[in-house]
Design a protein that fits this description.
This protein is of the alpha+beta class and about 375 residues long. The chain folds into two domains: about 1-230, Rhodopsin 7-helix transmembrane proteins (Rhopdopsin 7-helix transmembrane proteins); about 240-375, Beta-Lactamase, CATH 3.30.450. Helices cover about 60% and strands about 15% of the residues. The chain has helices at about 1-10, 10-25, 35-55, 60-90, 105-115, 135-165, 170-200, 210-220, 230-240, 270-285, 325-340, 345-350, 360-365, 370-375; strands spanning about 115-125, 125-135, 240-250, 255-260, 300, 305-310, 315-320. Strand 6 (about 305-310) and strand 7 (about 315-320) form a beta hairpin. Helix 2 runs parallel beside helix 8. It is elongated, with a radius of gyration of 25 Å. The model has no long low-confidence stretch (mean pLDDT about 80).
């Protein structure tokens, strides 16, 4: 029973590691794009898996153990689904049709409690802890679905790693760490359930216990303790999907703080640009009352697209030829955050003098070096 006592509490370590990733992503405002949202939900699902295991190992009645086991299997399946979605969008781009991949998981939800899990039995004697008893056929179907999601995630992460490796060895190492973390999650997350059913292992299974290690790996890969975070890595790689024509930094009253134009492009009338953008936003708010309090995020016209991100005081507008992506928006938000932190005193009592703001040119210039940084 030493192993059972050990496993009663260790799932909390896994939950803490993955919840730390979730909290960090939310704190850094990295949950607004599809890629970020899928990543956050995938990490939260692993934390929920660990918390379900904690309840399962500490359940005092078969009824509670069965409900906790149901929550554990659901969390594993949801995690696989969202890591798969994140992997596909990471390599390609978001398409609404991807949500069709959630239909098998939704169909399985009621089946897990009624058909996949048929009961619980004590590991030894008549006392807890318990282990789940599965229907072999339905368990195999659940496992096949989980493996389909997981293998799709691993393959798309590998494809992304392979593409990134062509441009930078450093970026490739970061992606390799994330790929390894996903593989470890797949192996450790599903293997104990499979071993229990396929080989009839009569001991307390590990379940989510060792998933604390990939959680720590992911946290280090996305945190400032890494030389480059996940967002910057993929921003540099995905920057080749568009041509950045110009960037304009605006105060919330429409005043232009600074701008940067690609030298190969013609000059932009900044004042006319800012005034026109303000007119469009006012028109949208006036015509559609439900949009009041919200802001314009993008405009498309022919081959050109405007991507707009907003902070507490300023807005950053990117004029592109091509299509913007999640990682450009992540980068824009990060730079707005840094700029506002550096100039908070000036911006909070704005006098309309762009020269008072520091770091404007350096911030705007950094966007035009994305492709060179990935080379």
């Amino acid at each position: 029973m030493v192993n059972a006592e050990f496993l009663r509490w260790t799932p909390l370590l896994t939950a803490a590691a993955w919840l730390a990733v979730v909290v960090y992503q939310v704190y850094r405002d990295r949950y607004r794009t599809w890629t970020e949202a899928f990543f956050v939900v995938g990490c939260f699902s692993i934390a929920a898996y660990a918390l379900s295991d904690f309840l399962f190992f500490n359940a005092r009645t078969p009824e509670i153990a069965r409900v906790a086991g149901f929550a554990s299997l659901v969390s594993v399946m949801v995690s696989g689904l969202f890591w798969m979605l994140q992997g596909v969008v990471l390599y390609t781009r978001m398409r609404r049709a991807l949500f069709l991949a959630s239909l098998p998981a939704l169909a399985f939800l009621p089946l897990i409690l009624t058909l996949v899990v048929v009961g619980v039995i004590p590991i030894q004697g008549d006392e807890p802890p318990y282990r789940l008893v599965y229907d072999s056929t339905w368990f195999a179907a659940w496992l096949a679905l989980l493996l389909a999601y997981a293998l799709t995630a691993v393959v798309t992460y590998y494809w992304t790693y392979r593409e990134v490796a062509r441009h930078s060895a450093h970026l490739a190492r970061r992606m390799r760490d994330l790929l390894l973390a996903i593989i470890v999650v797949v192996v450790l997350g599903g293997s104990t359930n499979a071993a229990l059913e396929l080989f009839g292992v009569g001991v307390v299974p590990l379940y989510s216990t060792f998933l604390v290690f990939p959680g720590i790996m992911v946290f280090f890969a996305i945190s400032p303790m890494s030389y480059q975070g996940l967002g910057e890595i993929l921003w540099r790689w995905k920057a080749r999907s568009y041509d950045l024509e110009s960037l304009i930094l605006l105060y919330r009253d429409g005043t232009i703080i600074g701008s940067k134009v690609d030298p190969s492009e013609g000059l932009v009338d900044e004042d006319l640009f800012a005034a026109t953008l303000d007119v469009i936003q006012n028109f949208m708010r006036t015509s559609f009352p439900g949009l009041r309090g919200k802001w314009l995020r993008s405009i498309m016209h022919g081959d050109y697209e405007l991507a707009i991100e907003r902070g507490d005081f300023v807005s950053l507008v990117a004029v592109l030829r091509g299509h913007e992506n999640d990682f450009l928006r992540v980068r824009m938000r990060e730079e707005i955050r840094r700029f506002e932190a550096l100039n908070r005193a000036v911006l909070s009592s704005w006098k309309g003098e762009p020269a008072e703001a520091i770091g404007t040119d350096a911030m705007l210039t950094s966007f035009f070096g994305a492709r060179q940084g990935a080379a």
